[in-house]
Hints:
By secondary structure, this protein is α/β, with parallel strands linked by helices.
Amino acid sequence: xxxxxxxxxxxxxxxxxxxxxxxxxxxxxxxxxxxxxxxxxxxxxxxxxxxxxxxxxxxxxxxxxxxxxxxxxxxxxxxxxxxxxxxxxxxxxxxxxxxxxxxxxxxxxxxxxxxxxxxxxxxxxxxxxxxxxxxxxxxxxxxxxxxxxxxxxxxxxxxxxxxxxxxxxxxxxxxxxxxxxxxxxxxxxxxxxxxxxxxxxxxxxxxxxxxx
Length: 212
């Protein structure tokens, strides 16, 4: 960072402002995807919600469109049949705090077109990411598989960064979560209490810890 001169900082600020000004919010799905080259699905870790979006979106997409999921725990083969284009569907998972770790995990399924895979790798490079290419499906990908043994911070800080809503959604998928007396059931209940209080993590300024 020592080579960041005031002039360079001003240049970077200008780039950020230009990018921010180009962001457009569109609530009409048909308009949003009308000419899309790539659609990145980045929503809660809720399989039913993802399937609902894919089902609604598949007939609105141009033939050229590639769909990638930013899911951090679920693999592409779980959803490919709902996309209407399994050969153009795969995962592109960004790390938390990409300004510190600009990696993008690239993972297809056994039906992903190799040409599409290569295009997504190139896309990751073009947006300033370092692609981490997986050759087979792996729940948790690379980063989350290594998260616990290689974490630089404690587990509650990690949960705050990831977001307690995401943690709760993942926890709720475990069949044991239905038993309030089980370990998983108690974890889900604890997370739900924080969510009900609006303490969703770093994004809200408070989770297990307070952030100012």
